[in-house]
Amino acid sequence: MRMKPQDLSWLEAIRQRGRLNDEEKKSYQRLLTGFQGELSFDQLWEHFLGNKFECLDDVTLDYHGDVSQMDKIFKDGNIVYLADIKNYQGNYVYENNALKIGKTIFANDIIEQARRSRRIFTRLFEDYQLPLEVKNVIIFINEQGRINLCDELPEIILNYEEIPSWLMSLRGHIQTNQNLSWQELIKKYQIPHYGTNRICTTERLKSLKKGVHCAKCGSFSLNSKRYVLECECGHVEVKQMAYLRTNCEYGVIMHHLPLKRSEIIEFFEEGYSADYIKNTLIKYFIPIEPNKKDGKYQNFGQPFDYWFKEDSRHFEKLEKRKNWHSDF
Question: Which residues belong to CATH 3.40.1350 in the chain?
Fold first, then answer.
């Protein structure tokens, strides 16, 4: 599962319940655009290659203090490709070692960034005597974005219409005679994704809209039945999952602190059962000090889908409660 950056999840949660300032709005749009571009490439990958290749998504690697982040990594024969996905809109030119749009030169050199990542991964494979060549692929995924290359570059750089034919040109040849797999080696030095440095103050938290919102349209006007919450838009959500999702949303907003039962009850506000919230925390969350009854739980600072991704089968069964008689 490709995961949103925590920064984006935080901004989304704040935006859902309050207002973003000008800097936050710009960051939100930039991060959302980048994430949507990565999802678009995932869809093309799935369509043209399916399960033909094993790949790693959203890899942050720390090899002897050199950190690199890649959107997708995959192997074809003895070549490991490092894919960097750009969801840029407009007409770009790469000339004299610089990326330009009009007369504006980008401060960040995307080619040099890619080359730095290639050097890190090449050194990693060489140190472990894996005979693998590393190549960069820079993908302009936006249909309204193009890059014109005036410099000769060894990197593979693709505009949107070039992506399908390039994907289909991959051989899908797999080498299996290596004692240590390339994926195992990368995972050995993989570190968690960059977290967010944004902090929601106590004052800002108080100003945010409280309660459970619809997972589909965002409305806070929900009708509570015995097992489900119903929205005017027609969306129905199992009550247990709605409570869990809201707990996790609080965790994203206050990622820098433990989950505290009393504060989560306040986050739900009146109209939602404090006992139900307490039981949800006891059942699904990990207490910081099990022998204490202070109501503090570990906070992973992630949305529900990521926090409980290993429990998908359990929640599939929980979804069946939608079909239970709920007019109580």
Answer: 6-188
